[in-house]
């Protein structure tokens, strides 16, 4: 039998009935699921990249509190929770600049606001956030399957890594990269490409799990299959609108979604 790692060829034999996928000589059968199946390029997974905010941890409370405190220091009013939910996902820098614009504040305040925001966020990081149900079960199953895992977020490293540790998630990951780890952030594909490089995995065999179109667009451009959770922060839009390969309601569904496809 051919070594699965020796070939990148994947063939869909049938599409309407059970789907037959060939991966380097190994053939897998996937019954038509209730939710969309992953494409055949994900048939032999080597690794999984997981987003943080809105995917593993509900952090909107942290964003809201840190932003309110920073704005108060500047004599500015708070913004509503709905605005925060629509705006988060592209990094804290984006959130802050959009907030100042939304309030009609002097954009020249940005540097001072950024320093204040960082000060407050570090002080309250994780205190107003919670791990979503199903995350621990999903991560444990992926690790048990022998898959390499990385956390990739637009959140700055100084916020992301302490949050992972505080929530007991850091031990699942071989690597954790924040939004300032690379020259560009998601939705640019560069962070996914570099994370695949760190994991030693081929993008086509690396699943991206996220919550927004930033994750979907970055994955598509990098050549990775992508699954989005239904409960995250997709800028006020349904996750399905980002056209991922599948949408799940819990990360605990991941093992069943990719079950029967071996890690290589």
Classify the helix fraction into a percent range. Answer: 25-40%
End-to-end Cα distance: 14 Å
Radius of gyration: 19 Å
For the secondary structure, the number of strands is 11
**Beta-strand proportion:** 15-25%
Q: State the order of secondary-structure elements, H for helix, E for strand.
A: EEEEEHHHHEHEHEHEHEEH
Whole-number count of domains: 2
* Spans where pLDDT lies below 50 across 5 or more residues: 1-37
Structural class: alpha/beta
CATH superfamily of the largest domain: HAD superfamily/HAD-like
CATH class of the largest domain: Alpha Beta
User: In what order do the strands lie side by side in the largest sheet?
Assistant: 8-7-4-9-10-11
CATH fold annotation of the largest domain:
Rossmann fold
Mean pLDDT: 85
CATH arch. level architecture of the largest domain? 3-Layer(aba) Sandwich
Shape: globular
What characterizes the major β-sheet? 6 strands, parallel
Question: Helix tally?
Answer: 9
């Amino acid at each position: 039998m051919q070594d699965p790692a020796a070939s990148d060829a994947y063939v869909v034999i049938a599409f309407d009935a059970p789907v037959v996928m060939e991966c380097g000589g190994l053939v897998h059968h996937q019954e038509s699921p209730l939710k969309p199946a992953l494409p055949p390029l994900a048939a032999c997974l080597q690794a999984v990249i997981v987003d943080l905010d809105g995917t593993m941890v509900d952090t909107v409370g942290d964003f809201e509190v840190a932003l309110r405190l920073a704005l108060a220091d500047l004599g500015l009013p708070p913004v509503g929770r709905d605005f925060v939910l629509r705006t988060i996902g592209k990094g804290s820098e984006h959130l802050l600049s959009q907030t100042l614009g939304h309030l009609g504040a002097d954009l020249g305040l940005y540097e001072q606001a950024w320093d204040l925001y960082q000060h407050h966020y570090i002080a309250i990081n994780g205190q107003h956030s919670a791990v979503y149900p199903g995350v621990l079960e999903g991560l444990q199953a992926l690790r048990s399957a022998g898959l390499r895992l990385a956390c990739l977020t637009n959140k700055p490293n100084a916020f992301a890594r302490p949050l992972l540790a505080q929530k007991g998630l850091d031990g699942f990951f071989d690597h954790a990269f924040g939004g300032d780890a690379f020259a560009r952030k998601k939705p640019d594909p560069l962070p996914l490409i570099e994370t695949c490089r760190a994991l030693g995995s081929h993008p086509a065999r690396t699943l991206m799990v996220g919550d927004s179109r930033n994750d979907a667009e970055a994955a598509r451009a990098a050549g990775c299959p992508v699954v989005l959770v239904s409960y995250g922060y997709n800028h006020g839009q349904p996750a399905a609108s980002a056209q991922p390969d599948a949408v799940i309601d819990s990360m605990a569904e991941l093992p069943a979604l990719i079950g029967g496809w071996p890690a290589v």
